[in-house]
Amino acid sequence: xxxxxxxxxxxxxxxxxxxxxxxxxxxxxxxxxxxxxxxxxxxxxxxxxxxxxxxxxxxxxxxxxxxxxxxxxxxxxxxxxxxxxxxxxxxxxxxxxxxxxxxxxxxxxxxxxxxxxxxxxxxxxxxxxxxxxxxxxxxxxxxxxxxxxxxxxxxxxxxxxxxxxxxxxxxxxxxxxxxxxxxxxxxxxxxxxxxxxxxxxxxxxxxxxxxxxxxxxxxxxxxxxxxxxxxxxxxxxxxxxxxxxxxxxxxxxxxxxxxxxxxxxxxxxxxxxxxxxxxxxxxxxxxxxxxxxxxxxxxxxxxxxxxxxxxxxxxxxxxxxxxxxxxxxxxxxxxxxxxxxxxxxxxxxxxxxxxxxxxxxxxxxxxxxxxxxxxxxxxxxxxxxxxxxxxxxxxxxxxxxxxxxxxxxxxxxxxxxxxxxxxxxxxxxxxxxxxxxxxxxxxxxxxxxxxxxxxxxxxxxxxxxxxxxxxx
Length: 472
Description:
Blueprint: E1 11-15, H1 32-37, E2 44-48, E3 61-65, E4 78-79, H2 84-92, H3 101-111, E5 112-114, E6 128-130, H4 139-150, E7 166-169, E8 171-172, H5 183-188, E9 196-200, E10 204-210, E11 213-219, E12 224-226, H6 236-246, E13 249-250, H7 252-258, E14 265-266, E15 278-286, H8 293-296, H9 303-316, E16 328-332, E17 343-348, E18 352-353, E19 357-358, E20 363-370, E21 378-381, E22 390-393, H10 400-417, E23 426-431, H11 444-454, E24 456-457
Parallel strand pairs: 1-9, 5-6, 13-14
Antiparallel strand pairs: 2-3, 4-8, 7-16, 10-11, 11-12, 15-20, 15-23, 15-24, 16-17, 17-20, 18-19, 21-22
């Protein structure tokens, strides 16, 4: 563990949640909330945005992991690095020195233990287990990859390697035993016990300051956990700015308005620049009985198949239960002139209702999302209680450019599904239905209305602390 690699250093890790049960991957293609529900523990911390004008004034669910490992203990286990050119932009255009791709790649490799071994982009000696499923567990995964090539895109062998762009297999944070490999499992379990103290079920109220210097954290019983070297705040895109603002670090006007008082450090960037990936599902009936429907639903007719998946996984850590069912996907550019991919597709051989339950029929879906929204939002305090809700406003689809890009992403996804590779499997379009959108390819008004009524968070919130040199 990096924080205790120094033999003279001791570290304390504070988590407001508890320890997770041993999370396996049975039906883990579901959303983080469902993964948490399967553990019988209240693992997610349920946040909701303020009503979003760009999404029909809906409040959007934004769960975070309230458990050791944070959201890596409840997420969908897809392992995706940022594109190399994004790191280059941060370093060379936006002033984030040391964040160029050549500088961060060694850390990605150092963290990783990839099932395919080491190469120029992959690591094989790190604590984080990463794998690809080969052969895939469902024929539709290969169909999706083939259809992407038929639509004119390249095939990529490693979306985290030399070329992200194209269609290919996705990496997942699942170990060789078929279990979820969270950050807690990768780092906390392997850290020297004599130099790491893990404190669970305690809430941090604020950062303890000596003037403008952080000297520790104040816990919920007002005791102070003091630090001799440094305080590392990693409570996520919601929790980190919340704790900074509760500590008097943030936009001065808002801190006074919220009741914190005068700012210790008046920094307008704290809680600003909030971004999130928006996502929507295109769903189609499948004309052949090859989807996850029989094992994704509790139906008496297929109960034996669902039980068989669980037994294989418990006994050997293999089979459908050892996959997150996001085995293939794609990265494409939404239009000419875009420097590198700005659209991501996940494919699953099943279709869900909302984000929890499978539709009771054979179907498949493409998760459609844009990667670099131009809309910017904010996180603001709604209370001085660190356990209280926040005013979260991602400003989804707040610009015409973001609406245009989501429209283009949906159309390109539908083009892929219309390729010859899908012909033996493609049935009627379910979402959007023909009544909702007559033609995905030509009806701008209806498609935009459906996107605004149906899109949701991909749970990739970021950038709200905004403390680096590039935001000062």
